[in-house]
Amino acid sequence: MNRKTLVLPAVIGLLAPVLAACGGTDSGSKDDGAIVVGTTDRFTASKEAPAPLDPAYAYDVGTWNILRQTVQTLMIQPRGEGEPVPEAAERCGFTDTGNERYACTLRDGLEFANGDPVTAADVKYSIDRALSLKADSGVSALLSTIDTVETQGDREIVFHLKTADATFPYKLSTPVAGIVDPDDYPKGQLRDGFDLQGSGPYTLRADVENGEMVRAEFTRNPHYKGSLKVNNDKVAMVSFKDADAMGAALDKGDIDLMTRAMSPKQIRELSGDADNGVDLVEMSGLEIRYLGFNTDAPPVKSKAVRQAMAQVVNRSELVSKVYGSQAEPLYSLVPASITGHSNSFFNRYGEPNAAKARALLNQANITTPVKLTLHYTTDHYGPATKEEFEVLRDQLNSSGLFDVDIKGAPWGTFRPAEKKGRYDVYGMGWFPDFPDADNFLAPFLDADNTLGSPYDNSRIRDTLIPESRREADRLSASTSLTDIQDIVAGDVPVLPLWQGKQYVAARDDITGTAYALNSASTLQLWELGRGVSG
């Protein structure tokens, strides 16, 4: 058995993967040559969310990972990270000194998967459609700095922005800016179900049972013209009910690779087993977990209650008990590896201290114990979520200041209820749309935020966010970004908990696994290939 060694360039947001458990057994799925990827993500069309794969609606890491394979964007985050590069576009760039006018030229001969030409008018239609629909997922907020979209001939697109936005190229790399065919996507309504067409590297065929997509089959798009090198002809993605079922399928060779969400136990076992024919790839990630608050709800309307929770929660104990070395405590919404990060919560609260928390509550005349229910999703962020919330419950209750219960619900129920403000306190995760501090702040704090949060700080919205976006040099934006994080630590509309690493486990004849995920948890199926095990 020859252990593989891989060294990647040192780049922000991505560490050199660590490979373990290389064996020499026969491997490969039994799926007609397709590379088969397992996931515990669930893809459901329901009355409350009938259009899970419409780019104008979709806004979670699972559905975005479907869209990124099929719907092309003008820009894309490059292999190995860094600033976005042209994808459907041949070139893009700001054409003024104020970062308010952004122009792109489409690649010549670009086509949708059905052979229809992709034109500048299609790009304008797609962007205008997402903005006008303004889906309740909040995804259109990524395009909120756009004032108008102008076309010049069939290949030239000009974006006129309301205000300077140095992060705009990143936003054009996200699926909400994906180019759709007006013949398939009506202007005034979302496209229900799991039909999906685009000009990306793959076409999609969905197998659906009882309103849920259980298998997605991606076939190389013969009309694709873009910057990506596609290393396979077909990839299938299969949804499993839990991590154990997914792991069993990998052991049997029914799937070739599994990603999110493996359990901490699985990762520990794969890290320690060098002869099972499976490679475990570990890389840094930008996933964060946090508690969100409905700041209008009576139990947590007083910021003293939220501050007291921030003063009691022991992140180090939480991470140690549940995730071990797979996560790190987080003291801001912005992860430690992102330019502009500040440990604002630690700077304000220090180590967990129940006496200080009691003083905060007494000063605000809050009667204790404060009765709360913490809500979490049972099937979206991995099997350890319940244990995580049990630890949080016990920490809060042991302070004597809180009377906390926990309650779980599947994502299809949890997310609509959260958006409608039915939960006072709830656990959420965030996989960034792009690796910039702005994307860990604006989606939670700006108008039309993704949580539907009533929290509104005018200094953050009207001054600090626009101020930070004017800085093309993101280091120069640090003062504004730090001020935002300090305000959040004081008001606690959200309570950051931890940031995690990410993992891919693959049978040892699968190549390209080191690039199967980028730091923002984007699944890059085109990187995968099949080689020789050993």
TrEMBL record:
Which residue stretches, if any, does this entry annotate as coiled coil?
none
The record's annotation in InterPro entries points to: Peptide/Ni-bd, SBP_5, SBP_5_dom
Q: Which SUPFAM superfamilies match?
A: Periplasmic binding protein-like II
Which keywords does this chain's UniProt record carry? Signal, Transport
Subcellular location, in the record's words? Cell envelope
Q: Which residues form the signal peptide?
A: 1-20
Per the annotation, which location comes first and is thus the protein's main one?
Answer: other
In this protein, which residues make up the domain named Solute-binding protein family?
83-449
- Provide an example Pfam family for this protein: SBP_bac_5
Alphabetical list of Gene3D superfamilies matching this protein: Dipeptide-binding Protein, Domain 1, Dipeptide-binding Protein, Domain 3, Periplasmic binding protein-like II
The record's section on PANTHER family has:
PERIPLASMIC BINDING COMPONENT OF ABC TRANSPORTER, PERIPLASMIC OLIGOPEPTIDE-BINDING PROTEIN-RELATED
What is the similarity comment for this entry? Belongs to the bacterial solute-binding protein 5 family.
Protein name in UniProt: Peptide-binding protein
Source organism per UniProt:
Streptomyces djakartensis
